C-alpha cells in the first residue's frame, strides 16, 4: 500500500509539474512569439522521414498587419462566439459528448470511435501549441485546461494573433502571411473578403483543400462564410 501511495504521489507531482510548465509557456507568450508549435514540429518530423526535403513557409506578422477580413472570416467559420466566450463553449462540448457516446456504441475493435471536439479557436490553439494530434478523452481534457489558461493569461487579440500566425494552411504552409502569399500572391493585410473566406474554409482540412483549389464545395462554402462575416465580432 505504501508503495502504491508513493507511486500515486509521484504521478500527481509529475502531472502538477507538467501543468506548471504549460502555464509558464503560455504566460511567456504574452510578450514572446512562439517559434514553432507542437503541431508544426510533428509535421516537420513527418516530412523529414519522407522522401522529400523539409517544406516550411511561415512569416510572423503583427495583429494589425492581418486583414480584418481574414479575422472575421476565421471567426465566422471556426468560432462565431470567440469574442464572447472564455475559451470553451460548453454546449458545443455537450453535443460533441453525445455524438462520441453514440460513436463508441457503434465502434468495433477493428474500427475504434473517433473523438469529436466541439473546439473553439482557443482550444484549437491550445492543441496546436502544446499537445499531440491524437483524439482521446484524456487529451481533450488537457486541451480544456490549457484553453482556460490561455484565456486567463492572454488577451483575446493575442490569442487570435498567435492562432492566425501558426495555424496550418497547407503542406508546410503556416500562418496568415504565408497562406496569403502562397494562394493569392499578396500580403495578409491585402486580402479581400472572398479571399479571406476561401482561406477560412480550408482550415478543417488544409492539405486536402490545397490539392483542390477549384472545388465546388470550397467555393460555395466561401460564399456562405463571406455572407456571415459582417456579423462576426472581433475582439
Descriptive notes:
The protein is mainly α and 235 residues long. It has one domain (42-48, 55-231): Orthogonal Bundle (Penicillin binding protein transpeptidase fold). The chain is 60% helix and 0% strand. The protein is built from 11 helices and no strands. Helix 1 packs across helix 6, helix 3 (68-78) packs parallel to helix 9 (193-202) and helix 5 crosses helix 6. The longest helix is centred in the N-terminal third of the chain and has 27 residues, at 2-28. Residues 108-117 have low confidence and may be disordered.
How many strand segments?
Answer: 0
- What is the domain total for the residues? 1
User: Residue share in helices?
Assistant: 55-70%
Give a short account of the largest sheet.
Answer: none
Helices, by number, come to 11
User: What is the CATH architecture term?
Assistant: Orthogonal Bundle
Oligomer: single chain
Which percent band covers the strand fraction? under 5%
What is the averaged pLDDT score? 85
Radius of gyration: 19 Å
Order of helices and strands: HHHHHHHHHHH
User: Which stretches are poorly predicted, pLDDT < 50 over at least 5 residues?
Assistant: 108-117
- The shape, in one word, is globular
N- and C-termini, Cα separation: 52 Å
Structural class: mainly alpha
CATH superfamily (homologous) name: Biosynthetic peptidoglycan transglycosylase-like
Q: Which topology does CATH recognise?
A: Penicillin binding protein transpeptidase fold
CATH top level assignment? Mainly Alpha
What attributes characterize this protein structure?
Lysozyme-like_dom_sf, Penicillin binding protein transpeptidase fold, cell shape, mainly alpha, 235 residues, single chain
Amino acid at each position: 500500500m505504501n508503495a502504491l501511495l508513493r507511486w500515486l504521489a509521484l504521478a500527481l507531482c509529475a502531472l502538477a509539474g507538467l501543468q506548471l510548465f504549460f502555464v509558464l509557456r503560455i504566460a511567456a507568450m504574452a510578450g514572446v512569439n512562439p517559434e514553432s508549435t507542437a503541431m508544426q514540429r510533428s509535421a516537420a518530423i513527418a516530412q523529414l522521414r519522407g522522401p522529400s526535403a523539409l517544406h516550411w513557409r511561415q512569416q510572423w506578422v503583427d495583429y494589425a498587419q492581418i486583414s480584418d477580413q481574414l479575422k472575421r472570416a476565421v471567426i465566422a467559420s471556426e468560432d462565431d462566439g470567440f469574442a464572447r466566450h472564455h475559451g470553451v463553449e460548453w454546449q458545443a462540448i455537450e453535443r460533441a459528448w453525445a455524438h462520441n457516446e453514440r460513436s463508441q456504441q457503434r465502434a468495433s475493435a477493428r474500427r475504434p470511435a473517433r473523438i469529436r471536439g466541439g473546439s473553439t479557436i482557443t482550444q484549437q490553439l491550445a492543441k496546436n501549441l502544446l499537445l499531440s494530434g491524437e483524439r482521446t478523452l484524456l487529451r481533450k481534457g488537457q486541451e480544456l485546461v490549457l484553453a482556460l489558461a490561455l484565456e486567463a493569461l492572454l488577451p483575446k487579440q493575442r490569442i487570435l494573433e498567435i492562432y492566425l500566425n501558426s495555424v496550418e494552411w497547407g503542406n508546410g504552409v503556416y500562418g496568415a502571411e504565408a497562406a496569403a502569399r502562397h494562394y493569392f500572391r499578396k500580403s495578409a493585410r491585402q486580402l479581400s473578403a472572398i479571399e479571406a473566406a476561401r482561406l477560412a474554409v480550408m482550415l478543417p482540412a488544409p492539405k486536402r483543400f490545397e490539392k483542390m483549389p477549384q472545388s465546388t464545395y470550397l467555393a460555395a462554402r466561401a460564399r456562405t462564410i463571406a455572407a456571415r462575416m459582417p456579423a462576426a465580432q472581433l475582439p
